Amino acid sequence: MPASTAGTAHSLHVDHATVDFQGLRAIEDVTLGLVSGEILGLIGPNGAGKTTLVNVLTGFQTVAKGRVMLSESSITEWPPWRRARAGLARTFQNVLLFPKLSVAENIEAGALAAGDGMQAARGRASQVLEWLGLSELSQRIADTLPFGVERRIGIARAIAARPRFLLMDEPAAGLNDAECVDLAALIRRIRSEMGCGILLIEHRMSLVFELCDRVQVLEQGKTIAIGAADSIRRDPLVRKAYLGESA
């Protein structure tokens, strides 16, 4: 079973972040907070700034204003590798496996990014594959995998890093209904057994409302609502901007 952070309280915050791209404001004065063991949904239309916010959290995007805090430490100036070693891991909307490496080698990469040596990374990959019930795929080359399995290996690579916080960018994209049921079960298991906080960017609203303790809604780079899933589902501004009246 992957190492757990259960029992250790951590928090991840971005405070009043503003990001500009060559004169275009991508996000403006956005604040987001996540704690250990919580699943926070981040939703909104395409182009609302969701992935940009994840890039701010993980160090791939600098801010014009604002700061990023991990527990009591400011990590605003930290590079991505240092944030990874401090416990921030992510998955990608486009899975981005190393296509010509084996499944095991892809998962080892997650452990190496978190600071493990090669021997420890190999052991970690084996442990994660066993935990996921995918050990028989360890030597399969990544670009021979079915798409749904690729998604699971992308998650496996992230949890190999023993994250305090796991940031998931549209993990259900391209999955069928049965695969989404399996994904929901896996996300619950990661939360319960690893104790990490999870930020879930997702367009499949059934998954968001099923899994998330709170939901934050972005539109045109600004937060328009944040609260419990039920209150967000009923919020008239959110329904008008994103969910529609049939949600």
Characterization of the model:
- The structure is a single chain.
- This protein has 247 residues and is of the alpha/beta class.
- It has a single domain (11-241), classed as 3-Layer(aba) Sandwich (Rossmann fold).
- It contains 9 helices and 10 strands.
- The protein has helices spanning 50-58, 80-85, 103-113, 118-132, 147-159, 177-194, 205-211, 229-234, 236-243; strands spanning 11-21, 24-35, 39-43, 65-70, 73-74, 88-91, 165-169, 197-201, 214-219, 222-228.
- The strands form 2 sheets. It has a 6-stranded mixed beta sheet, sandwiched between helices. Strands 2-1-4-5 form a 4-stranded antiparallel beta sheet, covered by helices on one side.
- Strand 9 (214-219) and strand 10 form a beta hairpin.
- Helix 3 (103-113) crosses helix 4 (118-132) and helix 3 (103-113) runs parallel beside helix 5 (147-159).
- The mean pLDDT is 91.
Write the layout of secondary structure elements.
Layout: E1 11-21, E2 24-35, E3 39-43, H1 50-58, E4 65-70, E5 73-74, H2 80-85, E6 88-91, H3 103-113, H4 118-132, H5 147-159, E7 165-169, H6 177-194, E8 197-201, H7 205-211, E9 214-219, E10 222-228, H8 229-234, H9 236-243
Parallel strand pairs: 3-8, 3-9, 6-7, 7-8
Antiparallel strand pairs: 1-2, 1-4, 4-5, 9-10
Helix pairs in contact: 3-4, 3-5
